[in-house]
Structure formats: structure tokens, C-alpha cells
Amino acid sequence: MEEFEAVKAQRAFEEDEENRVIVPETLIRPHPITAATRKALQAAKPDDYGMLKCAAPELFYLRLGPNSVNRALRILDALLKAFDARSFKVVCGVHERERTRVVVNGEDITFSIEETAQRQAHRLTEEEKKRQKEGTLYYVHTYDYIPGGTLTLKLDTPYSSGITGTFTDRARQSLEQKLNGVMLSMVHVAEWRKEERRRQEEKGRRLEAENARRAEIRRRHAEEAARVKQLQKDADAWNAAEALRRYITAVEAQVNLSGAEMPIKDVPRWVRWAREQADRIDPLKKSPPSILDEKPPELLNGWQFE
């Protein structure tokens, strides 16, 4: 896929040695968010993995061991100052489910810094040894987890984008040396999201147009099917009317030829009535009025009648 122009420009900017993000050995004039993060970590208690966590909505998410706090704060502070230098705006979360994010080229991007935990075989504590001796120790953890010293910065990179979103300490390159790459990935994510939104909007327009085309075909199909159904219904009604007329003619002929008595008392009157019923069925004839045009009334219960 062709690289976005904004990403090309940012890559050139980040590769310029003058724009290298440097993490100082000591924290000097910390950014307000850095200072607030330090305060939050100082107040935090280690979890079962020995990690301190900063998860306040107005701060970036950090989870790391006590020995990594100073280093992580220096990395965070370098990032925040690099954001300012690049006109990336930091917007702090307000609600519990809202995260602090960085606005890059109009797009919200969040990140976290976390330390990997190491697993080691569990060693019995003095209390556990005592309970084991007393026979009151029923379960012991197989492993203990402790901070491993390796820091990872994670961007909320879309899975399908293929953009590097995880930056981890390696033997040849520490996290501190990868911060310009973080900046570049942020711009890449922002441009990818805008392009993806454009693609989705275009897809939505094409989908709407295609569904409109299909809906029109369906409408015409249903309309034609209804016309054919009505045609068949009319033809069946016409055939039924013609059958009635042939029968009526046969009755008249039988009476005229034989003079025999028919079960019909008043043949002329019956013939008029029968022809009216045939006309009522025939779609080519005007339907004579009939009691059948009215819906028969429902019978009333006693409580319905005054």
C-alpha cells in the first residue's frame, strides 16, 4: 500500500537528528501530567504481580514495578514534551470509562506503558512453612510473579492496519530509543483511520446505491408478480362466470325443450338472479348490487343490548 503523504513527511521529520526524542537521566521540570502520574503511583499499592498501577481517567495508563517508576516517568515526560513540540494535543479523560488520549491530525490515540512480569517458582514464606508444619496449609501457589524490568509501550493500533503499535525493550534497542518511532506510528494510525473512514463512507455510499438498485428490482418484481396473479385471478373469475352462464343457458334450454318440471319454482326470476351472480364474478362486467357486498353484523350478547 502506498504510504500516506503525511506519514512520509513525518518520517523525514523523525529521522532528522535534530528532532530526536531524548529521555533525560533525571526528571527536570516535569510536565503537569507527569507530576500527577508520579503522585498517583506513589499512592498505589502493589498488586499480586508486584505492580503499581495508574489508571485514572485523567492520566495515561501505566502498570509497572516500583523499581521502574522513575524510568517510566522520564519516558512519559519525554513523550509529553515531544507531543507539544509536534502540536499533538493531549486531552485528559473526565469520566471513569474515558481515557486520556493524544489528538494527532484530528484523530484520538491512546497508549499505555506496562512492565512485563516474570514467573518464578514459589518459595514458601515463613508463615506458610509454619502452617505446613501445623497441617493447616491446604494450597500453595506454584509460581510467583514479579516485575521483570522490561517496559512496553502500546498504542491502540487498529489490528487490520499492519501499523507497528507495540514498542518493547530489546537487547539492542531500549524503549527510550524508539520514541521517534512512536511518534511516526501515531501519525500513521491517524492517517490510516481517516483513510479507513473515507473508505467506509465510500463503501456505505456504494452499498446504499446498490441496495437502492436491488430494491427497485424487487419492487418491479413484486409489482409484476401481483399483476400476473391478478390476471390469473381475473381469468379464473371470467371462466367461472362463463361456466355459470353456460349452466344458466342449459337450464333454460331444458325447460323450453321438455317443459319438464324443475326444482326451481320461478325459472325466469331464477335466471335473472343467476345471470346477476355471473356478472358479479365476471371482471369484464359491472357488478350488480348484492347483499353480499355488506358484511353481516355480529350477534349481540345480552350485556351488549339495552
Beta strand count = 8
Question: Strand-and-helix sequence, N→C?
Answer: HHEEHEEEEHEEHH
Kindly report the average pLDDT value.
92
Helical proportion?
A: 40-55%
List descriptors.
306 residues; alpha+beta; 5-stranded mixed sheet; 3-stranded antiparallel sheet; 8 strands; 47% helix
Mind explaining what this structure looks like?
The protein has a domain at 5-203. 47% of the residues lie in helices and 14% in strands. The chain has helices spanning 5-15, 32-43, 69-85, 126-134, 179-258, 267-281, and strands at 52-54, 61-64, 89-91, 101-104, 107-109, 111-121, 143-155, 166-168. The protein has a 5-stranded mixed β-sheet with strand order 1-2-6-7-8, covered by helices on one side. It has a 3-stranded antiparallel β-sheet with strand order 3-4-5, with helices on one face. Helix 1 (5-15) packs antiparallel against helix 5, helix 2 packs antiparallel against helix 3 and helix 5 packs antiparallel against helix 6 (267-281). It is elongated, with a radius of gyration of 43 Å.
What's the SSE blueprint?
Layout: H1 5-15, H2 32-43, E1 52-54, E2 61-64, H3 69-85, E3 89-91, E4 101-104, E5 107-109, E6 111-121, H4 126-134, E7 143-155, E8 166-168, H5 179-258, H6 267-281
Parallel strand pairs: 2-6
Antiparallel strand pairs: 1-2, 3-4, 4-5, 6-7, 7-8
Helix pairs in contact: 1-5, 2-3, 5-6
